[in-house]
Amino acid sequence: MQVVQQQDFRALVDNHPRAIMLSTTEPRIVYANRMFCAVTGYQSDEVLGQPPSILSSGLHSPEFYQAMWQSLERHGRWEGLIWNRRKSGETYPQWLTIYPLEHGNRRFWAGVFTDVGDVAAGDERLASLAYYDPLTELPNRSLFQEFLKARVARRARDSRRFAVLFVDLDFFKSVNDLHGHECGDRVLQHAAYCIQSVLRRGDVVARLSGDEFSAIIELQSGDDLDGVCQRMIHIFQAPMVVDHREYFLSASVGAAVYPEHGKTGSELLQNADRAMYTAKLAGRACYRLYSEVATEQGRREQRLSEALMASLKTAPEEFSVVYQPQYWLDSGRIAGLEALLRWRHPEFGVVSPAEFVPIAEQRGHIHELTGHLVRCILADLPDSPGLLPRDLRLAINISARQITDSRLEGLLGPLFCRIRRIGWRPEIEITETHLMNLSPQCLNRLREFGHQGVGVAIDDFGTGYSSLAYLHTLPVQVLKIDRQFTWRLGGKSGDSRIVAAILGIAEALGLEVVAEGIESEDQHSRLRELKCHRGQGFLMARPLPWQALGSALVD
């Protein structure tokens, strides 16, 4: 056509730094400049005469294009972020401007665009931030919801099954709390790369907010979903190395399949989120498919969360403490007590710490919970030794997120003073998984506790990722063997290899070992044979209120 043959026109646009194409109102492409070919991968003769939809990624809904044409009709212009597809099949974001051109008696549409994934995209890249996460360079929630709406609309035409994943990074908040947000951002970038690496061409992934990601997974066979979810869990099992430091995260993944678990994009995303929460309740580092039964459990968890927040602020009488005795296994004499917080709610009854402690951590109220623990212990302990046995340990559980909290010393100081006043020694327990992510500042704070005569114990040892080199540097004096390994002792299985290995590590590092969850004589006998130092469990004594300890404290 004459409009695209004139030399002055070609001199103006052929070497323009942005991709340019012209189309008729039919529409058919009648011109594409060199940058168009560089960005899309098509040669000009491959697209001339073709509709612009040859570039379509299929990620946008019919409503998206309807709004585009309505804007062109009303305002004579449309500008925004659109995801298109290169000749290679790769989808990419472009910042596109469309406006009309008149030449002679004919009307054309000009499309000018820039690949905003290109760091040289300039102002267009900045303008795209309303749809694009600048940290991970993934679509954000708004754009993902648009893609999801389009995928639901497309399902009516191609009948292919697809699933929505909701991915939440476990323990990421502790990275921000302990190392700062700058470090957290770099860990998030690495995590986004890990998530992308397990997906396939045609799948779409986005960062929704914070440490939450979502993806649209095309299902071509019956085991596709299981395979993707398994890879997603597996890739986070190894430590994540960022800036020469190891971080131990895991992923909880929820999945919802169209149309069984939702017939709209919002339903699918909501149900995938609910399934993810079920994975959290199952212990994290796993995936769950949406189910109505699991959703009911999630609703209970939400109600429980709201009740805990209210009780922490207005109902201190609902909290109490019980004490589980620990014994020297060689002599059977009492070695100390572990103080355990209990919560009895008027509606929910007695709530397990395994439920309410994670809620307090996630909602940022762990300091208030520890405050109730300390208050209850101080109400129980006498001001003087009296007839109490001497040189016992009194252990309390502390969240790793509290270690650098400036309020912690003021909270624990009076408790430690009272414990020393009766001739006992204070001890704090921190779970192994959290201990592995502590910053140098937190480790120095633990060393200060040690210098003050406070024992530091690794709780649930064996469930995390401790390396011998790292364990050697930790300011700890005690390892507590997780109950799942104690349960393997005695009986038919008689598997003592892990416990023996832990005891060997402890002996080499000069650490004491406490075995949790001793419930049978076989377990007790085997631990004595292995020369484990201390033990606790229902076989020897159940957790009791202070007034009921009685003979357990008799020396």
Structural overview:
The protein has 555 residues and is of the alpha/beta class. It is built from 20 helices and 23 strands. β4 and β5 form a beta hairpin. α10 crosses α11. The radius of gyration is 31 Å and the shape is elongated.
In short:
With 555 residues, the chain is α/β, with parallel strands linked by helices.
Structural class designation: alpha/beta
Low-confidence stretches: none
Average pLDDT over all residues? 85
Q: Number of helical segments?
A: 20
Percentage of residues in DSSP E strands: 25-35%
Number of strands: 23
Cα distance spanning the termini? 103 Å
Shape: elongated
CA gyration radius, whole angstroms = 31 Å
Approximate helicity band: 25-40%
Specify the biggest β-sheet.
Answer: 8 strands, mixed, barrel
Strand order of the largest sheet: 15-16-18-19-20-21-22-23
